[in-house]
Amino acid sequence: MEVVKTAEALREHLNDWRNAGEHIALVATMGNLHDGHLSLVRTAREHAERVVVSVFVNPSQFGEGEDFTEYPSTLERDKRRLTRVKADILFVPEIDTMYPFGVDNATSVTVPALTDEFCGEFRPGHFDGVTTVVSRLFGIVQPDVAIFGQKDYQQQLLIRRMVKDLSLPIEIISGETQREPDGLAMSSRNQYLSDEERALAPELNGLLQEMGRGLETGQRNFEELESQAMQKLEALGFKPEYVSIRRAENLDMPHRDCDELVVLASAFLGKARLIDNIVVHI
Ligand code: PAF
After folding, report:
1. Number of other residues whose CB lies within 10 A of the CB of residue 145
2. How far is the CA of 234 from the centre of ligand 1 (A)?
């Protein structure tokens, strides 16, 4: 696997591959790769002959007081892991490549619907940062397909919407959430958990599963289910931001006859902000 730092160097490879009729997949990451990311790379390999993985910790998607400066960087380990799953190129752009006019003067991409609710409500500006940087990566790599994890459910829907709205010829593919044996969704931020918090963390998924079973067995008082879940999380020691039941396809309010719902949640446990979701077919 080759490590490439500039858009120009990357383009040489991309041109060669395209001329040979090969398809290109992009897996965008902020590094500190875990098995969830590696599974996205494996999914990418199923959809394209060539896989580019980007590692860029994007400042514009972090709010004030968030963990931008302490975001864990493990580039050497990431390289070894990506070599093992046979990524073709690791693209590690400098800040000037991604933001030639500086982060504050950057052209930004906003997807108006969906950005202010759920994670967007608690992380103002976060999704503008995500869609801005992903649109740049799409511009540089021009992939045929891009893989995003289902754990970041809202992010993935926003990116799908951006691609449709801007008529970008890129297929967005969803990668299944990878979990620890006890159900905790894999995330780079899990390493902020103390031992005690780590033991408690799977309760978040446990609660979503319990809500899922409730929905499957006919419960339809969505608000009650949500507020009971918030109370349970608080009682366990989490600081929940939201627990919401929505239509899986677009995060609209659900109605009794929907056949596919998503239960989304975000909660702090100590300094780790955990998010998770499950899709429920009813
Ligand atoms: O999901 C992430 O890791 C980031 O939001 C992404 C898509 C790499 C954009 O910086």
Report:
1. 19
2. 28
The model carries a pTM of 0.97
- CA of 168 relative to ligand 1 center, distance in Å: 18
Residues 256-271, mean pLDDT to the nearest whole number: 96
User: Residue 16 has which token pair?
Assistant: 């060669």
Distance from residue 220's CA to the centre of ligand 1 (Å)? 34
- Report which of 30, 263, 277, 93 is spatially closest to residue 174, judged by C-alpha positions: 277
Q: Is 32 left (phi over 0), alpha (psi -120 to 50) or beta?
A: left
| pLDDT tens-digit series, residues 221-233 | 999 999 999 999 9
pLDDT at residue number 113 = 86
The answer, yes or no, to whether any atom of ligand 1 lies below 6 A from the CB of 133, is yes
- 92-119 mean pLDDT: 96
DSSP bridge pairs for 262: 246, 279
Same domain, 32 and 163: yes
* Atom 9 of ligand 1, residue of closest alpha carbon: 130
Write the CATH number for 42: 3.40.50.620
Active-site annotation holder among 13, 37, 47, 255: 37
Q: How far apart are CA 234 and CA 229, in angstroms?
A: 9
Instruction: Say how many domains are in the chain.
Output: 2
Residue 130: Cβ within 10 Å count: 27
28 CB within 6 A, ligand 1: yes
**8 Å CB contact between 225 and 219:** yes
The CB of 61 under 6 Å from ligand 1? The reply is: yes
Q: How far apart are CA 52 and CA 62, in angstroms?
A: 24
Residues 155, 116 within the same domain: yes
Tokens for 139, please give them: 């511009």
Asked if 34 and 145 sit in the same domain, the reply is yes
What residues make up the domain containing 198? 188-281
37 is catalytic: yes
Distance 130 CA to ligand 1 centre (A): 6
